[in-house]
Design goal:
This protein is α+β, with helices and mostly antiparallel strands. It has four helices and twelve strands, in the order βαβββαββββββαββα. It starts with a strand and ends with a helix.
């Protein structure tokens, strides 16, 4: 089993450049009224995705995420929902088929079909939308001191959420609760 903490500086710079290129086609607004959120509006569908401002752009973007867990609020005409994606990025595939999240000792298990892609520079990405993540999952992660995300496949890899990534869960939950109470 491998354990990874932190991200090499070159990877952060690379991710930032990719995000800036991606953002060229995105419209940003701040219509949520929350100074803690950044909103992306899909110019084709009008759907909105709200991300916490407390992390750098490259940790917030779902397709390019550096964080093992990327949290956001998705909003369209019909609903407003919490979303979380599990993201594994590295130089070699693990062909993940499950993700386990251990938040201060409480374990959550997720399976599904992973999206796999090769990014520039030979970096690979394996990601899974955690559709079964319920409110108790979000609450637990947002209040934890230590969160370990285990990607299992050919081998297992443990990644740790940084404090700022746990804080992102708190920001999103606060904003979601605020949005829900307004409707």
């Amino acid at each position: 089993m491998e354990t990874e903490k932190g991200t090499p500086r070159a990877m952060r710079i690379f991710g930032t450049i990719l995000v800036l290129l991606l953002l060229a086609g995105c419209e940003t607004t701040s219509d949520t009224g929350s100074p803690a959120l950044q909103t992306y509006v899909d110019s084709f569908t009008g759907e909105k995705t709200h991300y916490p401002k407390i992390t750098s752009w490259d940790t917030m973007m779902v397709p390019l995420s550096r964080s093992p867990l990327t949290v956001s609020i998705f909003e369209n005409e019909d609903e407003t929902t919490l979303q979380v994606f599990a993201n594994y990025r590295a130089a070699d595939w693990i062909f993940a088929d499950s993700v386990s999240v251990k938040a201060d000792g409480e374990a959550f298990y997720f399976q599904g079909e992973f999206n796999r892609d090769v990014l520039d520079g030979g970096i690979i990405k394996e990601s899974l939308f955690l559709v079964d993540a319920d409110r108790s999952f979000f609450d637990r992660v947002s209040t934890s001191d230590e969160v370990i995300v285990r990607f299992s496949g050919k081998r297992s890899v443990n990644l740790y959420l940084r404090d700022v990534e746990i804080q992102a869960f708190r920001v999103i939950l606060d904003a979601f609760d605020s949005m829900s109470s307004e409707s």
